[in-house]
Each structure stands twice: as structure tokens, then as C-alpha cells.
Amino acid sequence: MILANVAAEGSLRVVPVTEGHIPAETVWLDLVSPTEADDALTEAFAGISVPTREEMGEIEQSSRLYMEGGARYMTASVLCGADTETPVMLAVTFILSGGRLITVRYGEPKAFPTVAGRLGKACPAGITGEALLIELLEAIVDRAADVLEQIGSDVERISKRIFDRSQGRENSNQRYRAILSHIGRKEGLVSYARESLASLQRLLSFLGTETDGATVTKDAKASVKSMSRDVAGLSDYANFLGDKLQFLLDATIGMVGLEQNNIIKIFAVLSVVLMPPTLIASIYGMNFQHMPELDWTYAYPAALVGMVISGILPYLFFKWRRWL
């Protein structure tokens, strides 16, 4: 699908290309999951080559950031679906050519409908593809900041749940299993955010540098510099969250170990407490003919009392040594 964005009457109007005709005044050409026919139509209109999905997925920097035919190609990894249970990394290609912006994507990052909706209400006169690219990149950075902020709040809740002692009758096994699951999901999300920020940082460095005579305006350079600082700060915060999640993971595993030790300690104490009574019962369970206590009237209750006392004494000894 091809969405042609045309600036007219103080707004950016979206014109879906359905009949194979792209308006000549298009300033932003948005290719959403394009077919081969869409690629061919765009190439004929803009006079550039459109990268395939496989080419967009290459990880070499030279394959993601380059100049070709006077057009500047920039591919970034963008976090998509951060609010869902299955976030993914989406490769998005930005192409600046002839004052137009061409984007190629196979998903729906929130930054795109956000920018399109905002400019659809009010759009500066004479907006260029370069200005649209800056708008999109700022929206992507803002979205990354929102995601990291939400992750930070979730990490605080996880931390309180791990170290909160007033858990009532909540099952420890289920609680720690849920905590480990949450930590795993947040760690994966932080890893995606790190990857996206690193990709954006490389893109901004390429955009702000003069390459083969291609450069950006002074205002765009100022915006790129500001975004670079923001991305660096967000990267540091993402690293902090990653370290904190690792600490919480270690703490949770430690808590699970303590719970297991407490259970094992109970069984160990019970085995020691029951050992003397078992010994007494074993002795008097022997079928020997000559046992002096067998003819004693109070032998049975005396044996019972001896077993109870022999069980209480080890327990009191453990309490005195503060082993319990």
C-alpha cells in the first residue's frame, strides 16, 4: 500500500494511491508493506531504487546508511508493539530524495500515525521531506522515552513486590514464578529499546554529517544534535534499567533459594526431633524375653513420656542456639 501525503491548505492530506497515479505535489510517500508493483511505481515516480525487505533487514551499517543516486538511504530498527505481549523490532527505511521523504515499513510504529495525525490538523507551509523526517525521528525518540518510562515504573513495582514482607497468604511459588516472568518480559523490552536507540544514534550521526555533498539545513542540524543528546541520555537510562533488572533477577533467585532452604531446614529439624522418640520406640519394640521394663506397671506411659521429652529437648536446644 502506498500513502501519498500532500501538503495543502495548512494541513498534510493523506491520499491513498489506488489507481497507479502518485500526485506530483507529494512531499511524503509512505510505503506500508509494499508489493513489487508498489516498489516499481515508486521507483518510476521518484527515480530511485526501493530496498527490499531482505535488504532492510541486513545488519551491516554500510547496508543501512548510504548514498545512492543523490538520495540518502537510512534504515533504523524501531520498537513496535511495546504495549503488547509480543513486542518486535521493525526495520524502517527513510529515503530523502529531491526534497521528498519516502518511508518503507512492514508494520505500524506509533510514531507514524502520530505524526500524520498531528500534521493533518496543522502543517507548516512549504514543509519539506527533511522537516518530515525530523518530525518522525522526534516522534520515535519520544515514543522510546515513553516506553522506558513505563518500564521504569514497572520495575519499581516488581522491586516492591520482591522485597515486600506483607504478602499475606499468597503462594510463594506462584508469586516468584510470576515475578520471574515479568522480569523476563521487561528485560526483553529493554534489550529491544537499547537496540533501537543504538540504531537511531547511528542514523542521526549519518544524517548530521555531510556525505557526498548531501547535507541538511541549519535548523535540521540543530534538531539532530538535540535528538542525539536525548538518545544518549535514553541509552544510559536503558542501561540503568538493564542493570536493575539483572539485580532483581538475582534477588528473586536468592529469595527462591531462601524459601527452599527454609523448607529443607524444617525437614532436617523434624528428622532430628523425631530421632530420639524413634530410638526409644525401636528399643521397646524389640521382642526380647528378658526386658526389665516389660513387667513394670507404668512402663508404657513412662516410655511415652520419655519419647515426648526426648523430642522436646532437641527443639529447645535449637531454639537456644538460634538455629530456628
Automatic annotation (TrEMBL):
Recorded superkingdom: Bacteria
Reactions it catalyzes: Mg(2+)(in) = Mg(2+)(out)
Family annotation (SUPFAM superfamilies): CorA soluble domain-like (SSF143865), Magnesium transport protein CorA, transmembrane region (SSF144083)
Main location: membrane
Alphabetized Gene3D superfamilies for the sequence: Magnesium transport protein CorA, transmembrane region
Transmembrane segments: 263-286, 298-318
InterPro entries xrefs: CorA_cytoplasmic_dom (IPR045861), CorA_MIT (IPR050829), CorA_TM1_TM2 (IPR045863), MgTranspt_CorA/ZnTranspt_ZntB (IPR002523)
Keywords, in A-Z order: Cell inner membrane, Cell membrane, Ion transport, Magnesium, Membrane, Transmembrane, Transmembrane helix, Transport
Any GO CC annotation of this UniProt entry: plasma membrane
Subcellular location: Cell inner membrane
Keyword flag Cell membrane: yes
Key word Transmembrane helix present: yes
Bilayer topology: Multi-pass membrane protein
GO MF annotation list: cobalt ion transmembrane transporter activity; magnesium ion transmembrane transporter activity; nickel cation transmembrane transporter activity
Similarity section: Belongs to the CorA metal ion transporter (MIT) (TC 1.A.35) family.
Name by which UniProt lists this protein: Magnesium transport protein CorA
Source species taxonomy: Bacteria, Pseudomonadati, Pseudomonadota, Alphaproteobacteria, Hyphomicrobiales
